[in-house]
Amino acid sequence: MTNHLRFFTGFTFVLIILELITVDMSIEDKNVMNLNANFNKVDGLVQGTEVRLSGVKIGIVNNMLLNKNKPQIEISIRKEINIPSDSSISIQTDGLFGKKYLSIEPGGMDEYLKTGDDLSFTEDSIMIQDLLNKIIEIGEIKKGNEL
Fold first, then answer.
1. Residue 44's pLDDT is what?
2. Cα distances (angstroms) measured from residue 100 to each of 3, 4, 66, 110
3. pLDDT of 141 over the 50 cut
């Protein structure tokens, strides 16, 4: 009898935890606006990644897919946020080795994006290895100029 009670208690606990996780990761459709952004590379992004505006979380990455061999990201943001149509979106990192997130930089237009619109101006993630290679290259150029 106690084994059945333990199983039922454990099973219920797991269901509650799963429900809490999925509630946190989802946003009700009626309160969000879905936008798309096309990138060249999206290293470090996953479904559920935060979307921020001026450092404040306003949405999440809903879906990631390939469109003509290029990554296309679908994001869901709070509907009450007005994003100018000339805004840009970039992949940023919390600190040097932190978690990735999407950052929206608002433009200056009076027209605002609507559900289904594309963010036209995108900036890919910077790979640490690429950054280090550029630093080494600059150092070698400066070293060559000193000789």
1. 82
2. 44, 43, 19, 30
3. yes
Q: What number of other Cβ atoms are within 10 A of residue 51's Cβ?
A: 24
Rounded Cα gap, residues 84 and 110, in angstroms: 6
**Is residue 23 over pLDDT 80?**
no
- How many whole angstroms separate alpha carbon 61 and alpha carbon 77? 9
Are the CB atoms for 125 and 89 separated by under 8 Å? no
pTM of the predicted structure, to 2 decimals? 0.67
For the chain, domains (ranges, CATH) are 30-146 (2.40.30.110)
Taking a C-beta distance cutoff of 8 angstroms, is the pair 71, 37 a contact?
A: no
CB 99 within 8 A of CB 91: no
Count CB-CB contacts under 10 A for residue 116.
10
- Asked if 83 contacts 120 with a C-beta cutoff of 8 angstroms, the reply is no
**How far does the chain reach from its first CA to its final CA, in angstroms?**
84
Q: Residue 26 pLDDT more than 60?
A: no
